[in-house]
Design brief:
Length: about 180
């Protein structure tokens, strides 16, 4: 114990302790940044109806029109019924009539809440938008109402980049970073 008192040998020096704390902080900051980078920032809500059922179709059209009105009035800021409108026949992995609503994470809680209260008899698939379409539409998906079997063979297993749909809004993946 040359030159050290028993108590000083049991406690690391303040510079060593400070260095360890800084290193732990850097590791924690890197892990935290990784969590932010991996966070899902955009979602789709797919509203389904039976395309051979007139009442089901009319109900879906009214639901979509109400969403468009709420976007126009500013209730939804990061919610957009996609430009392709209403699919009156199966499209992509969706085996029945549908329309799609894009939602940025900034408005997810409001959008989810609204659909819970207003979906009527429609089943709604909710899925994230990432580079992994098949996982997004299956193991990462959630349903309001009765799930509808999807044709996952129509999807790409891995995309080169996350699909960016409304960068002009500056939300979701297009939002400024921290």
């Amino acid at each position: 114990m040359s030159g050290q008192t028993p108590s000083s040998s049991l406690h690391p020096s303040s510079s060593s302790s400070s260095s360890q704390q800084q290193q732990q902080h850097n590791i924690s900051s890197n892990n935290l940044q990784s969590e932010y980078d991996n966070e899902i920032k955009e979602f789709h809500f797919h509203v389904y109806w039976f395309q051979t059922n007139v009442a089901s179709y009319e109900s879906a059209v009214k639901l979509r029109e109400r969403i468009l009105q709420l976007v126009k009035e500013g209730f939804f800021k990061g919610v957009v019924p996609l430009k392709n409108g209403i699919n009156t026949v199966p499209r992509g992995p969706h085996p029945v009539g549908s329309f799609e609503v894009w939602c940025a994470r900034e408005d997810f809680a409001r959008c989810y809440s609204w659909f819970v209260l207003n979906r009527g008899a429609h089943s709604i698939l909710i899925h994230p938008l990432t580079k992994q379409e098949i996982e997004d539409h299956s193991s990462r998906a959630a349903w309001l109402g009765t799930p509808v079997p999807l044709d996952l063979s129509r999807l790409t297993p891995f995309l080169e980049e996350v699909p960016s749909q409304y960068p002009e809004l500056g939300l979701g993946y297009s939002a400024p970073t921290n």
